[in-house]
């Protein structure tokens, strides 16, 4: 469901791997009986048009059912814990011109990438909290 890389791709305005995340959330948030039915039917063959056209925009994420929001929230927290530093530490380093200039070009680029990733994850936390 998640794809080759085992991760979902989030953007500033929406989930870029929306189909994978949508199906994953549905499966992980269903009851045991619903899951048995899902397996027997080999997935959802008769999805409604509304579900097929679901775009996981930020607005749609904020309207998810509570169990799905909690699952996303907990997943984001786990992902943030996997980083060695928090968002504030990255922001402090970006704002400290002297320390920033001591970093190699590659370290500066990595800092910008990590900072952007963490900002998107924090935005998602706010959307589903």
Automatic annotation (TrEMBL):
GO cellular-component term (any): nucleus
SUPFAM superfamilies found in the cross-reference section: RuBisCo LSMT C-terminal, substrate-binding domain
UniProt-annotated location(s): Nucleus
Statement: the UniProt record of this protein carries the keyword Methyltransferase: yes
Domain of life where this protein originates: Eukaryota
Chief subcellular location: nucleus
Alphabetically ordered keywords of this record: Methyltransferase, Nucleus, S-adenosyl-L-methionine, Transferase
A GO term for molecular function: methyltransferase activity
Gene3D superfamilies named among the record's database cross-references: Rubisco LSMT, substrate-binding domain
Domain Rubisco LSMT substrate-binding: residue ranges: 4-121
GO biological process, one term: methylation
Protein name: N-lysine methyltransferase SETD6
Annotated organism of origin: Eolophus roseicapilla (Galah cockatoo)
């Amino acid at each position: 469901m998640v794809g080759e890389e085992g991760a979902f791709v989030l953007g500033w305005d929406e989930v870029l791997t929306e189909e994978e995340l949508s199906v994953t959330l549905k499966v992980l948030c269903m009851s045991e009986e619903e899951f048995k039915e899902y397996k027997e039917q080999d997935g959802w063959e008769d999805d409604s048009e509304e579900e097929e056209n679901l775009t996981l925009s930020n607005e749609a994420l904020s309207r998810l059912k509570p169990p799905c929001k909690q699952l996303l929230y907990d997943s984001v927290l786990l992902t943030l814990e996997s980083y060695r530093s928090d968002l504030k530490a990255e922001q402090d380093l970006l704002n400290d011109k002297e320390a920033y200039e001591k970093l190699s070009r590659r370290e500066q680029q990595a800092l910008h990438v990590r900072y952007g990733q963490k900002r998107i994850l924090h935005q998602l936390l706010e959307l589903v909290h």
